[in-house]
Amino acid sequence: MRITYDSEVDVLYIQFLDTTVTTKIVDEGVAIDYDAEGRIAGIEILDALRRLKNPDILRRVVLEEIGLVSTVKSIR
């Protein structure tokens, strides 16, 4: 699994599978990527800070995956 956050466009992406995908928009600003067999390959969340309403949640989600929580103070 790979978690990325792009602060320039405020997008959180959680990738479960590295493959060719078909994207389905499931809500305004939320899309699910599916692989050829219909398995969820990733989730994209636009306006992530606004949706999560707490930058600390986003910092934990993104940074716990790579083990840097204790060294980073904030994502801006």
Which shape, going by the Cα principal axes? globular
Which sequence of strands runs across the widest sheet?
1-2-5-4-3
Question: Mean pLDDT, rounded to whole units?
Answer: 79
Number of helices: 2
Extract low-pLDDT stretches.
66-76
Biggest sheet layout: 5 strands, antiparallel
Could you describe the 3D structure shown?
This protein has helices at residues 48-52, 55-64, and strands spanning 2-6, 11-15, 22-27, 30-34, 40-46. With 76 residues, it is α+β, with helices and mostly antiparallel strands. It has one domain (2-71). A 5-stranded antiparallel sheet has the order 1-2-5-4-3. It is globular and about 35 Å long.
Short description:
By secondary structure, the chain is an alpha+beta fold. The protein has one domain (2-71).
What are the main properties of this structure?
76 residues; globular; disordered C terminus
Strand and helix map with partners:
Blueprint: E1 2-6, E2 11-15, E3 22-27, E4 30-34, E5 40-46, H1 48-52, H2 55-64
Antiparallel strand pairs: 1-2, 2-5, 3-4, 4-5
